[in-house]
Design brief:
The chain contains 8 helices and no strands. It has one domain. It is mainly alpha-helical. The longest helix is centred in the middle third of the chain and has 30 residues. It is globular. Helix 1 packs antiparallel against helix 8. Keywords: Membrane, Transmembrane, Transmembrane helix.
Amino acid sequence: MNPRLPFVAAPLLVLAYGVIRILDGLDGSRGPGPAWTTGHLAFLAALALFVPTFLRMRRMAGRDAAATASAAAGIAGIAAMAAQFAIDVVIGFLAADHAAMSVLFDRVQAVPGVSLVVYDGGPLLFFAGQVAIVVRLALLGRVGAWVPVLVLVNVVLPLVDKDLIPLGALCLLAAFTALSARLPRPAVPAPAAA
């Protein structure tokens, strides 16, 4: 896989999730249904692509302790968010309507530890790790100072209003495009001699 691809595809999939989420809510409630499932699957795909971005950013930062801790936190956060979105997809399939989804969510979140690990604390590691590693890259001079600013804006905007997820994703796309431009170009095999 081209190492630049995850840096572009992950933010685009987050953008897709954000737009689908807005469209899903136009009728006054979100889920269950095709929009709910499609949006969540797009975000799950984005999460899978964020794993190689963390690994690549760790490499760009020299694999030092700070970069390793940031990447590890980010990947742990990805696991928590993936669990959350997988639960959301399953509940979307099981529930007949939005009210039934609420009942199922209450049951899942009543399981000891699930709320903290999957919904509240765990996902924060993804965002904290992402901000920390791009700050590290900026401090090392590997990216401009504006890159961590855009990543932080991406983190903060959904806290203000979840309908701002698409705008945050565009900020992340700009930041990650700049990051991917700093990656070494993939080796192109030499043509075979005739």
